[in-house]
Amino acid sequence: MLRPLIVDALGSGRSGRRATLDAIGAGPRAVAGVLELRGLKPRIIIAEEFLRGGLNLKGFNLLLISAMTVDQPTARRVASLWRRLNSDAPIILGGPIASDPAALLRVGGDIAVIGEGEKTLEELLNLLIEDRLDEGLRNLRGVAYRGEGGVRVNPLRPVMSRVEYDGYRPSTRVVRDYPLYYAARVYVEVLRGCSNYYRPIVEECIRCDRCRSGGLTERYDCPVGIPPGCGYCSVPSLYGPPRSRSVSRILEEVEELLEMGVRRLVLSAPDILDYGRDLLVEPEPLTDPREPEPNYDALEELLSTLTDLKPIRSGEASLMAENIKPSLVTERAAKLLGRYLSGTPINIGFETGSESHSRLLGRPSTPRECLTAIRRLRRAGLRPQVYFIHGLPGQSVETVEASIKAIWSSIQAGADWIILYRFTPLPMSAFAHMPKAPPAARDPLSRRLRENVSKANKMLKGRWIGRKLKAIIDGRYMKDRRFHVAYPMPHGPVILIKDAERLEGKTVEITITSITSERVMKGIITSIKGNKHFVTLYKSPNRFNAHEAQHKTYSSFSRDINTESP
């Protein structure tokens, strides 16, 4: 009998989670759902807890590690510990890390499931249960495995159809295996794949423009083999064009998670505005990031159904979306999102402020469209958060200056936060063989970007001082145990608070009092959620005079910059 253990190493990097402590991704629950279909009862444990010895491993005989490419050091430590205690039990790698078959050797795994894993994992389980692994691996599509002479890579499995994809059910039972499930952002996958089948302009490109102007099916393949999508992204190569889950399936999953005690839900998708667009072009693949416009009816059905659930309607739980393409942010789309997700953050990929650099990267939107999208979303009541990447191929003095200008223009347009990533080449992306960017501190151009982002975020964070918001109390802050950690209901900065003993898991109202760092703020509890309403703990007309004055200053500035430029 197989007794599987899933180790969630997503976001653990080299030394454990730092910025994603409160995130529970959709991938490990999807894997658990496939295992449950076979009558198995998997457990999930986060990598840090696994490495601390938080579970007796002798009760398990199959290890599945879910990780990203950057999580390889942690995945290797997990595999090494497993080998010491279960030397003969197989190790299966999944998630983005598996897109590089060589990771099997570096991590110490046996089998890697590449791309969409559900059907491949089902067949792999059959081989394990029937003890036919050695003979069956040779003909199993979508895997790499360790064989004689090194790693063998089998042909990829075609992406599932929408109907096949919708037939799988992620596990909700295992969410309670996560220690922070009651306060974490729990991701619910609403669609898989990306509609950006543009390609970056690299050396091999023959400038045929088929990926931008050809028919939907024609765009799927490049005549010279350039992977689709932005050059730094592997989503289209791994998961194909978008396929949407049915509202009924999503509703079923969300209802069960709410019953489990989950209170912060994120609709997971490379672009929430792709939801239902695939239905508009079936049976062709959705390979155009601009046309047709969003499927407003499908999107409204999804959002209205979920926000009508009692815990979300009453404010006991919150619903968020994450990523969005500016090319699809029409006025109608922004208003629709604002109607159901008002006050929540939404992420926009800007990446570079240079128009020419944007096209070279294969971006589906221009910097100008990004600014327009930010204005529209802000006016609709959302909190746009903007991504940039330093060290991208083609970075120059001109592109960096354009990006710096775009950072400040984003704030003027209404951006709530600026996020800067370091370019890392991903397997199966067009830039897979490019060198990794050096740290921002070692590159003068990247350092200028980093300095401007830090300055911008310090100013943006000042707007939070004096603001009141609902948050969920977690445990003590490990770096200073006088404080407890609190996570805002709609995603926001981590908040440190004192005097929170015996309040773990409670929803409270907090007033922000000071800024500790780019990622952390401090606040005080002003009321605690009772059965029907908040109970005020402290109220003083004079306590926050200075903070209120500062808040008013930033609020006035916010109103000034949220108007459409002429």
Brief rundown of the structure:
Helix content is 33%, strand content 20%. It contains 19 helices and 23 strands. Helix 1 packs across helix 5, helix 10 runs parallel beside helix 12 and helix 16 runs parallel beside helix 17.
Topology:
Elements: E1 4-8, E2 23-24, H1 26-37, E3 43-46, H2 47-51, E4 62-66, H3 72-85, E5 91-94, H4 103-107, E6 111-113, H5 118-129, H6 133-136, E7 143-147, E8 150-153, H7 162-166, E9 185-189, E10 191-192, H8 210-213, H9 235-239, E11 243-244, H10 247-260, E12 264-268, H11 277-281, H12 296-307, H13 310-313, E13 318-321, E14 323-324, H14 331-341, E15 345-351, H15 355-361, H16 367-379, E16 383-390, H17 397-413, E17 417-422, H18 444-462, E18 468-476, E19 484-488, E20 494-497, E21 507-515, E22 520-529, E23 534-536, H19 545-561
Parallel strand pairs: 1-3, 1-4, 2-9, 4-5, 5-6, 9-12, 12-13, 14-15, 15-16, 16-17, 20-22
Antiparallel strand pairs: 6-7, 7-8, 10-11, 18-19, 18-21, 19-20, 21-22, 22-23
Helix pairs in contact: 1-5, 10-12, 12-14, 14-16, 16-17, 17-18
Number of domains: 3
The chain-level mean pLDDT equals 89
Number of helices: 19
Can you identify the CATH superfamily of the largest domain? tm_1862 like domain
What fraction of residues sit in β-strands?
15-25%
Give the biggest beta sheet: 7 strands, mixed
As laid out across the biggest beta sheet, the strand order is: 3-1-4-5-6-7-8
Helix content: 25-40%
Shape assignment? globular
CA-based gyration radius? 24 Å
CATH architecture of the largest domain: Alpha-Beta Horseshoe
Number of strands: 23
Low-confidence stretches: 531-566
Distance N to C terminus? 68 Å
From the 3D structure, determine the CATH topology of the largest domain: pyruvate-formate lyase- activating enzyme
Q: Given this structure, which CATH class of the largest domain is correct? A: Alpha Beta
Helix and strand content put the structural class at: alpha/beta
